[in-house]
Amino acid sequence: MSKAEELLGREISRVNRHLPSSRPTLAELMKMEEPFVVLRDGSRHYFRKPELEYLSSLVELEEAKNLRIPIILEISTLYRGYFRVRGKIAVKVIEILLDQYDPLEENGVGLYPRYLLPRIRRKLPTTTTYAFITE
Fold it and tell me: Buried b vs exposed e over 27-45: b needs ≥16 C-beta within 10 Å?
């Protein structure tokens, strides 16, 4: 690994310190009095209960047991002008929010134009987060 790649890797790690150390499921968070996760920098991030309830209304009970929160919106060096969402249930939620959901198409990965990010973040400010990725 070159010095430049190593430096870039450290910088990406620093930028992503806001990511959670672990991601509980929606069902687990719904049971908590004050739902939160511990971030990589040691601080806590709290989720708004009404937002969690809204997410619960978008998915089936079994899906809530598998949907990891926060939903990660990946900003990648590979897809300029786009962001990526991984996970069948997370993709379903994002596509419902964007009025693009087709129940006949179940995608494990979704790629969306970046201009849609504010629309998602307005509806799900505490249950989504960005991750910066080099590929």
Answer: bebbeeeebebebeeeeeb
Q: Where are the domains of the chain?
A: 3-133
Both tokens assigned to 52: 């969690």
DSSP 8-class letter at 65: T
Over the stretch 68-97, which tens digit does the pLDDT of each residue have? 999 999 998 888 899 999 999 999 999 999
Residue 13: predicted pLDDT? 77
CA dihedral 20, 24, 28, 32 (to 10 degrees): -10
d(CA 94, CA 55): 10
The span from the CA of 11 to the CA of 44, in Å, is: 22
pTM assigned to the model? 0.90
The CA distance from 122 to 43, in Å, is 23
